[in-house]
Batch of 3 targets.
Target 1
Amino acid sequence: MEKYERLFSPIQINSIEIKNRLSMPAMFTKFANPDGSINERIVEYLEARAKGGVGMIVLENTCVDWEYGRANGNPITIHKDSYIPGLYELVIELQKYGVKVFPELHHVGREQMSKYLDGNQPWGPSAVACEGGYDIPKVMTEDDIEYAINKYVDAAIRSKQAGFDGVYIHGAHGYLPYAFLSPKSNKRTDRWGGSLNNRSRFAVELVKRVRNVVGAGYPIIFRFSGEEWVEGGLELAEGVVFAQYLEEAGADALDVSGGGYESIVGSPMQGQAFDSMIYMAEAVKKHVGIPVFGTGSMGMYPALCEQLIADGKVDMLNFGRSLLADPELPNKMKQGREDEIRHCIRCNECLGALDENQGIRCAINPQLGREYKDKVILADKKKNIVIVGAGPCGMQYAITSSERGHEVTIMEKSDRIGGLAFIAGISNYKQKELWSLCQYYKTIAYKRGINVLLNTDASLDIIQTYNPDKVILTTGAEPMELNVPGAQKAANALDVLENDGNGITGRVVVIGGSGVGIDTALFLKDKGCEVIIVEMLCNICGELNGYLTKHLKQLILQNDIKTYSSFCVKEITDSGIIGSFNGRIEQLNCDHVVSAIGFKRRDDSTLHNAISSAGIDVEIIGAQCGSGHIMEVTRKAFVNALMD
Ligand SMILES: Cc1cc2nc3c(=O)[nH]c(=O)nc-3n(C[C@H](O)[C@H](O)[C@H](O)COP(=O)(O)OP(=O)(O)OC[C@H]3O[C@@H](n4cnc5c(N)ncnc54)[C@H](O)[C@@H]3O)c2cc1C
Ligand SMILES: Cc1cc2nc3c(=O)[nH]c(=O)nc-3n(C[C@H](O)[C@H](O)[C@H](O)COP(=O)(O)O)c2cc1C
Ligand code: SF4
């Protein structure tokens, strides 16, 4: 019996059969052209996932109304007939792999600003602005409602013409249909507001009207948020009844997500349970007879996915970020190569990139979005490459070099693979993710026959015994030292994490409110300490993306960790710290002080010069060049390794 027998069993949705229970949900990429048309970048990005074995692919939010309903950036669009040929090309390219393809018909509604709509006011059921700086929407008239519904209907006709296997309607995450559904954003007193029946009318009407034009055999799947997760928003009990309305209206399947722009994000992060969102799909499934899709961290824990299907809690599972991180995940599961999966680390750097008006990027898959350009092909000439340092940078370099046919040796001074990424996994809340990444590097190195020399402090002599054509120094960064009186009394965060707390107990002040300081604080809290974080800048989480910042602030709150921003430490004394805070001198008493004030470049010039003087090509990359995140160092390693 196949290990994931149920996950790899087919399912019927209306007239089509999907080869397995794995669906890639819509994920906005910002890869499209500025006018919303398809390009090679999107095709190759999705083709990699289609090839990887997923059963169906839902195209990212696909715009039905460019004037009033487009997402910020450059979403794929289907608002005009002229986009059909491009979409058709995409669809046939993906269908070659036996994958079913759906567009996600999308109107942004009130979760938008005029400045991103060429000055047009966003539309909504009522004049209730979405929190977070969005514009007050124009209250839609009956005519506007009719106009918007027709936009979806026209887009559905085009979807069929473009060869899609069915349509998805994006009624989740606060977008237009959900804005009508939500009691928080819909304050209307006419037939489109008030009772659940009235608030559901827009979505129900969409399903019925789309059905009229696409015919009985064409699948319509509706995505909505089972709960809105905000005060005054939609609750699950109503979500379940709404699901029944959709079934009655003619939807063939339902995809149950959660939240919207005003809530926590529906892409669960490190520390959240791997099935934290499934309860909503499970509740819906109990009350409808059509297939139900569950979402949230699926694929990151394959055995759990199989169990969810086996237990009949859901019928299909969305593998979102897990396929961004590893497009081949389904094939690896099916072929018994599970240990080769590069599991998503749930850091939401991908979403963070969107907020910075970038195309999506992945912390651990440097090829994401570059499939069309950065191809891993055999090198013209096989080289002997020595890499110093087995952190994420060195490991990515080693893997890519080895895939290109080079002979690779890694020298690592410690007794393990992963560098600081291993230490990052010492805090409980992200241990599974970070250690799984280290394990992935280890497995691939072993399977590819990369020569890993642990406990090896690299020197010119050792390096020369391997007769390299090229040496890569990726020795990472080192902690900065505090420069205040009494600094020697403070422990270093890395020592604390690596040495099971280093004997620290009681009340602790952690100096530094960035990622490392927060991880250390959470670690010490788990050990029973009372923890305070002080940060010199006006905000903690300084350089982290918005999603991580929100998530970490929530963890800090839940763990009852006190924080002081704009606190500049002046001295460490036997009884605690003294610093300036809000223009006055403040003293915080504690039993221990831990320093987590950041990292500096490691000075490798001696080794570099020695290697270079010996006539060997040598390059320094990674964290010791100043980048403090896995995403930057793996990207740099990958790109550079393609050049050898
Ligand atoms: C607590 C903590 C939490 C973090 N959390 C995150 C996070 O959530 N997300 C994120 O993106 N980043 C995080 N980081 C940062 C991330 O770990 C680093 O950006 C990343 O590890 C840098 O990779 P690297 O390969 O360049 O260097 P490193 O990971 O530092 O690896 C360098 C390696 O070189 C080895 N080495 C050094 N000198 C020699 C020598 N002479 N000979 C042989 N080997 C040598 C070292 O032992 C080490 O293994 C965190 C860091 C810490 C400390
Ligand atoms: C980068 C990114 C973009 C997303 N864009 C969309 C989108 O366009 N439409 C949508 O319905 N959901 C979107 N989502 C939500 C995902 O479809 C999915 O429901 C969510 O990430 C949880 O699944 P996962 O944990 O498997 O990633 C996006 C998620 C990510 C990470
Ligand atoms: S960026 Fe982070 S959360 Fe997004 S897919 Fe990659 S590993 Fe997962």
Target 2
Amino acid sequence: MSRVRTRRRHLNLRFVALCLAAVFALAGLGIWLWASRGLPGEDVAVPDYVQQDFLTVNPWSRPGTPLEKIDGVVIHYVGNPNTTAQANRNYFESLSSGEEGTYASSHFIVGLEGEVLQCIPLTEIAYASNIRNADTVAIEVCHPDETGAFSDASYRRTVELTAWLCREFGLDPMEDVIRHYDVTGKICPRYYVDHPEAWESFLADVASAV
Ligand SMILES: [Zn+2]
């Protein structure tokens, strides 16, 4: 009688030990899967019209911080009329010396002729959109004059690039495409803050391109 009871107790202990081992194994598997999960911007092939010209990794404009999630696209204007995409890319690169003490960059710069330079890989954050740096892709757009209105070529290209990002990362143009202004109240991109109806039609153009 007592021997049977002892054996049963042993069986119970063995069962508990097996359960604990299973729990630890599952937890370990979970941690391993979490640690080895890819970034959303990994293995993404950019469109042909994008020329990759990445900045040097540096604390001021390309910190190399992983972009863990992509929940939106933030549109900016360069704020420096009639400058080229290349000039703005060189400016971001020049910040790497630290002499200016300025943190700034962008994933993409759309030029006046519709050319696109990519300065930061989609797996890393840019310094463009303040608290939304951690979960958005930034596009800076060149403009011919002080109004900040995009040229026809840069407008069309920005629509195309934004629509591509929406498709690639499953974003809703009407919800997830925002202005820098919508993050901090900064007057950026100027023309599309001064003319909210122009911003609405930009979003509608992106939505129909998606
Ligand atoms: Zn901005």
Target 3
Amino acid sequence: MIQTIRVLYKRYSDALLKSTALGGFFARRIKLGSGVSRPQIPPHDNHGFWKDLPKGFCVLAPMADVTDVAFRRMIAKYSRMGAQGGGPAVMWTEFVSADGLASKGREVLLRDLAFTENERPIVAQLFTSKPENMKFAAHLVASLGFDGIDINMGCPDKSIEKQGSGAAHIKNPELAQKVIRAAQEGALEYAQEKSKETGTTVEPIPVSVKTRVGYNKVELETWIPKILDMNIANLTIHARTRKEMSNVPARWEHVARSLEIRNNHKVRNAQGELVQCTTRIIGNGDVTSLAQAHDKIKQTGCDGVMIGRGIFGSPWFFDSAFNAEHDLTIRRRLEIMLEHTRLFMELLGDIKNFALMKKHYKAYVHGWHGAKELRIKLMEAQSVQEIEGIVAEYCVNEKDLVECTLARAQHHTHIMLNK
Ligand SMILES: Cc1cc2nc3c(=O)[nH]c(=O)nc-3n(C[C@H](O)[C@H](O)[C@H](O)COP(=O)(O)O)c2cc1C
């Protein structure tokens, strides 16, 4: 898995280097290279939609080359996002380089920032170590209509850390604070411009951070207060250190401790008074079902839980009223997989490799007798047409089996084996 993450992060950062000129399209907004001025503290607790989320929410993790525009649309549809019992409560984009967005080559990156209304609330995740680029990118993200900006301060990939971004921020809290403040300023600046233009008050979109519990060792007591001092709207804590990558089980006791730190923390409000910190805290790591997420919320007191790898091949994951094992036939499962593949090709086929879909196939085609043989064929396919052909053939050859749910398929297999 780590290898996969590395490859994905690498591929992603390589894409950043592929510049295409867009002229000075966005240049009018903020002068690049200008320093970030003395922070202007937003005139209110700028926590946007975060403050209204009822405690106990579940959100979708940002995952490069996984939670892309196609998969997010599938999740919004099949998890009934926005409807009662549906979810997730918040979506994240994949991480996007603020340096890339601030460059002339931003065009490819803007494709990663496409979203539909059904995905709201949605936050754009950015990374950089350059405050001026963060300010520019935050302004741009606000102008695109996002509900929030999230800053990646946990990515362990070497190519990201080399830029001083991702987990490298844990080693330099002062710079991390400047980057956060720059994002808040970019959002505020856009809101002020928009307010002037429309004659109504436009609120700046909130800023959040996603990080780990420390770099080489647990550093909650020093690192978390530095972040909370910035009065951010939400802090997501991946319950491992940078050094641990994903090699050890997530340690949720660190999420519980972060809650205590938050509860004892004071921040300055717009009037300069010290007030209780109200930053929401989300825990993250190794959660694979909604039931597990709710257990974590009970055990740690965290406001919400973020789910990453648990959603591979399960766009229905966040629908609390839906039990795929009992409610979904294998045929329907395969149809949804095809729908996902076609959407991926339609939206991203010209810029992303078809092979990226294969990690989803592994998860869609799993849990019944004969799934492995089908999976092997799908792994060898090179195009959407081949995938369609393989699925059609399977549905003809296994016409009884594909009408079963996974729960019933176990039973079906039992009868077939005993015939
Ligand atoms: C393929 C992959 C890509 C990822 N990309 C990002 C990313 O773009 N931004 C980020 O903050 N974390 C990223 N992560 C980390 C996840 O958001 C999450 O913190 C991690 O997978 C642990 O949660 P989980 O156990 O629920 O998967 C990625 C993880 C994976 C597996």
